[in-house]
Amino acid sequence: MAVRLQFENSNEVGVFSKLTNSYCLVAIGGSENFY
């Protein structure tokens, strides 16, 4: 049970980091295109 909860938490963190990373890439690309 503990391993399952730990895996679910790590999976959510992975998805969250992917979303934030893609958002940062879009923000950086948008700023480069803007300038």
TrEMBL record:
Gene Ontology MF: a single term: ribosome binding
Keywords: Initiation factor, Protein biosynthesis
Single GO BP term: cytosolic ribosome assembly
Taxonomic superkingdom: Eukaryota
Listed Pfam families: eIF-6 (PF01912)
Protein name (Swiss-Prot/TrEMBL): Eukaryotic translation initiation factor 6
